[in-house]
DNA sequence: AAACGTTGCAACCGCTTTCCA
DNA sequence: TTGGAAAGCGGTTGCAACGTT
């Protein structure tokens, strides 16, 4: 069971808690470099760290491990999170397996701070079908649009990440994280996500990936999928969703500015609605929103 | 500029699952 | 088969940075 159970010399000595120091990080990295991962309790005892094995493991897996990717989630990653969460729910570690370099903790934080925030503002349950519909009808298509429009989007994985050294240098221990690492390299959105197969049900075969296979699940998108002109890197996006004012900043939904047109001004049919969205797309220019409150409100209203 | 509120994320906690003798 | 230890997981909390008044 956990290391707090029972009592021995190691546990009786004063254990450190809270933010990790540079010295502790260095010690942990050095120990793992020499002895490898695993045996966390043993590591905690032998490394000289006054931490629990559990704490050491968490620090390593969530922060120090060299292949950890830091910085804002790309639209591709956000799309995957939304898609996989709709399928598996709060299975963070499982979702994280399909986002190389991202940790379950990071994904969990993204969901809580970004996604659930929107649900709270709408006063609806983040796990409700209504909210899921809103995600599928508005958020995800816009992410696809972003993925198709951004030529400078970060790669899904930074294979050159030497995060360890970089992080030690940049990490304000206990404080807010450093600015995201940048890598201008361009990759296929799912090049390194080989195990992700959105079309399969429970089990995901670790082989081919074709994100466009997710399209039948996305209303408004499937009708365009047959036209190669509408596809990008295997994705197909709806030209009526989103528009020309695509922002290229990190998270797509940090802020949700009120749409210029109120929901009542939007058309009643889907196509009318989509057209209105295109017409009103300066919203994305004003803020960083992939969607806005009126839009969500409209979709949720339609769904109920 | 200072006080206060909000945000984002690292770290912790407790429970479950897996491993192994 | 069983029981203890280790590892894994998801929920929650604490706090520094940032934004607003």
What do you see in this structure?
Residues 166-212 are annotated as: Disordered. This is Transcription factor MYB62. It is found in: Nucleus. Residues 12-64, 65-115 form the Myb-like domain. Keywords: DNA-binding, Nucleus, Repeat, Transcription, Transcription regulation. The chain has 304 residues and is mainly α. It folds into two domains: 15-64, Arc Repressor Mutant, subunit A (Orthogonal Bundle), CATH 1.10.10; 75-157 and 190-303, no CATH class. It has twelve helices and two strands; from the N terminus they run H-H-H-H-H-H-H-H-H-E-E-H-H-H. The protein has helices at 9-12, 22-35, 40-46, 53-64, 75-88, 92-96, 104-122, 129-149, 163-170, 270-279, 283-286, 293-303, and strands at 231-232, 235-236. The chain has a two-stranded antiparallel sheet. Strand 1 and strand 2 form a beta hairpin. Helix 5 runs antiparallel to helix 8 (129-149) and helix 8 crosses helix 12 (293-303). The longest helix is centred in the middle third of the chain and has 21 residues, at 129-149. Residues 1-12 and 151-291 have low confidence and may be disordered. It binds a DNA duplex (21 and 21 nucleotides) through residues 1-5, 17-20, 38-41, 52-55, 57-59, 62-63, 90-93, 104-106, 108-110, 112-114, 117, 172-177.
């Amino acid at each position: 069971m956990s290391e707090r159970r029972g009592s021995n010399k190691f546990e009786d000595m004063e254990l450190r808690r809270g933010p990790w120091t540079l010295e502790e990080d260095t010690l942990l990295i050095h120990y793992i470099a020499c002895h490898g991962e695993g045996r966390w309790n043993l590591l905690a005892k032998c490394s000289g760290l006054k931490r629990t094995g559990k704490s050491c493991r968490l620090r390593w897996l969530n922060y120090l491990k060299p292949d950890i990717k830091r910085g804002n989630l790309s639209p591709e990653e956000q799309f995957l999170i939304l898609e996989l969460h709709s399928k598996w729910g709060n299975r963070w570690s499982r979702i994280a397996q399909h986002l190389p370099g991202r940790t379950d903790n990071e994904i969990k934080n993204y969901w809580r701070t970004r996604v659930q925030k929107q649900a709270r503002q709408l006063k609806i349950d983040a796990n409700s079908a209504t909210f899921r519909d809103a995600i599928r009808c508005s958020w995800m298509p816009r992410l696809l649009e972003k993925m198709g429009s951004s030529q400078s989007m970060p790669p899904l994985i930074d294979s050159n990440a030497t995060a360890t050294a970089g992080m030690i240098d940049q990490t304000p221990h206990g404080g807010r994280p450093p600015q995201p690492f940048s890598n201008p390299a361009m990759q296929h959105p799912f090049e390194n996500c080989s195990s992700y197969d959105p079309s399969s049900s429970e089990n995901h075969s670790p082989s081919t990936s074709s994100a466009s296979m997710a399209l039948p699940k996305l209303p408004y998108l499937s009708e365009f999928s047959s036209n190669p002109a509408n596809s990008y890197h295997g994705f197909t996006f709806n030209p009526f969703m989103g528009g020309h004012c695509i922002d290229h900043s990190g998270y797509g939904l940090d802020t949700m500015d009120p749409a210029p047109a109120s929901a009542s001004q939007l058309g009643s049919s889907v196509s009318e609605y989509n057209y209105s969205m295109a017409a009103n797309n300066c919203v994305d220019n004003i803020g960083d929103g992939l969607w806005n409150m009126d839009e969500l409100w409209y979709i949720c209203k339609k769904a109920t």
